[in-house]
Amino acid sequence: MNSDTAPNILVLHCHDLGRFLGAYAVPTVVTPHLDALAAESALFEAAFATSPHCSPARASLFTGTYPQTNGVLGLTHDPFGWDLAEPADHLAHRLSTAGYRTELIGVHHESRVLPDDVVAARLGFDRVRTGGDRDVVVERTTEALDRAAERAEPFYLQVGFHEPHRTPSRNDRPGVMGFLGDAVTPDDSLGHTVPAYLRDDEGAREEIAELQGAVRHMDEGVGRVLEHLDTLGLRDETVVVFTTDHGLPLPRAKCTLYDPGLEVALMMRVPGRDAWEGRRITPMVSHVDVLPTLLELVGLPEPERVAGTSLVPLVETGAAVAAHTFGQLTHHTYYDPKRSARSDTHKLVVNFANAPRAMDPTQSWVHRSLPADLNGPTIGSSPLLELYDLGDDPHETRNVADEPAYADVFAALATALLGWMREAGDPLLTDRPLLARHRDALTALTTAAGVALPAAPSAHGPAPDAHRSDSGAVPARARERESA
Length: 484
What we know:
Helix content is 27%, strand content 16%. The protein is an alpha/beta fold.
């Protein structure tokens, strides 16, 4: 990498992937291009999104802040219309002010969905071209790389693939939205990997074959982009990041705060820094860490108004890591407020409403995949508290919240969760909860943590115009540190 020129940044991201890649030990999905990138990168084995659905997760990725802080507590397209409280906190804006040429291609879902030129002006992009299937995204990306190669300025190129998101197809049976669209072919050439949280039956295998085909289709697009980067001679001048927004769009995954809803693939290829080559990093990290990491890698100052922490010290010196990662769900297709705190060994989920135990992410009337722990004809309502021992119960099926042996674990996680909610300015911390369940949840948390109910923050209202904050103030970092 030329020491006289700031490195380029290429961020490749996709919808709904989780960690469903060969590089993450899924043996039946064909992903040779991403597996090859992983072998050249620092791959984070325990990376988590801040939210198990699209817009809040992406808002965190591209701002380094939590949804409660950045204002994106739900989807950013109509009729929902959630928006960033401060668009200038976007990574593109930060890099643009540092002299980068910036461009967005494909998926944009982290701020209010508006015309491309408006999105560009608000977020700090020189050019925005949203939408398009894989081939359109690849064509536009190779064109953008051609133009970038002719310029003296470093570039930031943000490329979002729609695949493997569920997509309507004429091949779907009535009541089903699968993964096929018009271009994907099911792939069971290496068999099927049905996640352990689903029943392994004919319906699940049919759905997994479609998913595997969609992931393979996306992987081929990534391969074409990376090949063109190499052809232009830009490999040694470009930091490459690949990630996804959240977990797989399957029952008990996407739209839940269980690990399958929050787990994400994350790999970063950093030329000229040996510690980043061919490494598998095991400590937990969060999407909020990506922005400060990239800014440090390209030599920019530690950013203000972020909750994340650069991963450079972790990768290069084994320095401190987060003691907890945190997750939130507030509003997807309906209001279902949940919060979670996860340590290396345990997970606490607090359900602030009496919604169904797991929101349905399939976009289908007819379900082909069913949760493995489903008992009876319905999925039931969410319990107030869920506590899981991840060592004994990695699939989060045995709730130990009421077991006396876990009282100290619950108290520690409740304390961490409340501290995070307070520093993130969480609108759920109110002394006037509207729901009895909401009041019960706050009482359980504050009692376990041995603290009084925190002062109510400024609430984010439900209407699109109320999703913006006038102050722009972001609380201090919330995550605790411990030795790696």
